[in-house]
Amino acid sequence: MSEALQKQRVKAFARMKAVLSQPLYQELKTTYADWLKRPRYTPIAQLPLSVLLPDLLGPLLSHLLLHPGWLISSQETSGEKGMLLHELRKACKHARYQAEFFMPFYGEQFQDWVAEIKALQAQLGDFQDTQVFLELATKTLGRELRLPDLQAAIEQKQQGALVNWEEIRQKYLDEGFRYHLHQMLLQPTVKAGQVHPELVR
Q1: Predicted confidence band at 192 (pLDDT cuts at 50, 70, 90)?
Q2: Are residues 54 and 107 both part of a single domain?
Q3: What is the pTM assigned to this prediction?
């Protein structure tokens, strides 16, 4: 098993190295570096960022809330439905990274929400890790795992990762909570000293 994992890591590293060595990636890096030296903005950039925040974050929140992964119960997490939870994890990751950038513009409720999304991302990541391990173990050891202790350990890890999944998903399907999240984005509260004055003029 460990030998198979090592081979997989070596292959993955080789693929990553090949991608990062390609001219297209180097060109992308150069383009970003050039833009940072001489940024060119669209006309809407004349407005203060605090005015634009709801418009920037609204689509991000909508993308997260409309994800079909919220409809998957803890009793149906295998196969394609398990993959939907993996996709939801990626949506949480994207939302979290974007939202963290704007944390100085919002108050405690926003920060609590970002922390909640971060925790959910970690839980779904743990679940995905067990799925990947189970796939690899099945491929390496045969079509069906014949190691009861290993099978039990995997199932226990999966249950632990989704221990409060039903509570979380019902919360994010709740009409009132979804409305609250949208309202929260409409009320930025800039913290003095944490944001460059040019952004809030």
Answers
A1: very low
A2: yes
A3: 0.78
